[in-house]
Amino acid sequence: MDNPICSWSPKPALVVIGWLGAAAAAAGSTYLAFSADRTGALLFGVAAVALVAAAAHGAFVRPRLAADHEGIRVRTLGRSLRWAWPEVRVRLTTTRRLGRDVDVLEIEADDLLILGSLELGADPRDVLDELNALRPAY
User: Mind listing the pLDDT tens digit for each residue in 47-95?
Assistant: First the structure.
């Protein structure tokens, strides 16, 4: 799958916001470390580490999901998983979180992978429609 027909990744603006938030939290932690507020410095430091991890994941795992007529590929930090269409089952699941309905794309093959709109950079319903259009009839 050198040239995927469709691919989905976190939106670049969201990744940039993550990096900017990490820089701001690191600056806040550094500033508070030199003042009397050591607890605040620790909290800002933890926030900076969490934001760096999230922004790095969004920046380095691109594209998160790719598809062509042969199958799909999902990238993780450690590896790239590839399945042919007969090996995979893709479905949309709706759950209720914090008082609102959230759609996620479930990819079931060797493992169960759950991808939301932040990871895909698109509405999971639209991604499912495109995947179903690419999937050959068997």
Answer: 999 999 999 999 999 899 999 989 999 998 888 999 999 999 999 999 8
3-state SS, residue 8: strand
> What are the DSSP calls for 52-114, one per residue?
HHHHHHHHHS-SSEEE-SSEEEEE-SS-EEEEEGGG-EEEEEEEEETTEEEEEEEEESSSEEE
pTM of the model: 0.80
Omega prior to 63 cis, within 30 of 0: yes
CA dihedral 10, 12, 15, 17 (to 10 degrees): -130
